[in-house]
Amino acid sequence: MAGNEHEVNRSAKSGRFVKESTAERNPRTTTTEQVGGDSKHGDREVNRSASTGKFVKETTAELHPSTTETQRL
User: What angle do CA 7, 58, 56 make, to 5 degrees?
Assistant: First the structure.
């Protein structure tokens, strides 16, 4: 998958993907993630609620493993 790296923007409130223009207008309420590339060499792990898509803390993911997902970015 090398060479397929790109950035995506998400609302920090809803977890949904948003346009780049939305991220530029609302930098405090959006996150930009680097995705793609070599999945074996992800830089960091993030945890998300499976139902809302919002980021959650590691402790929340540990307490609720069936309703959270962990991603390597």
Answer: 60
pLDDT in tens, 3-41: 667 888 888 788 788 899 999 999 888 888 877 766 566
Give the length of the chain. 73
Where are the domains positioned within the chain? 6-72
Contact residues for 37 (Cβ-Cβ < 8 A; gap 6+): 1, 2, 3, 4, 5
For every residue of 5-58, DSSP letters joined together read -EEEEEETTT--EE-HHHHHH-TTSEEEEEE-S-GGG-S-EEEEETTT--EE-H
User: Contact 48/9 with Cβ under 8 angstroms?
Assistant: no
Contact 1, 37 (CB under 8 A): yes
The predicted-structure confidence for 11-21, as pLDDT tens digits, reads as follows: 878 878 889 99
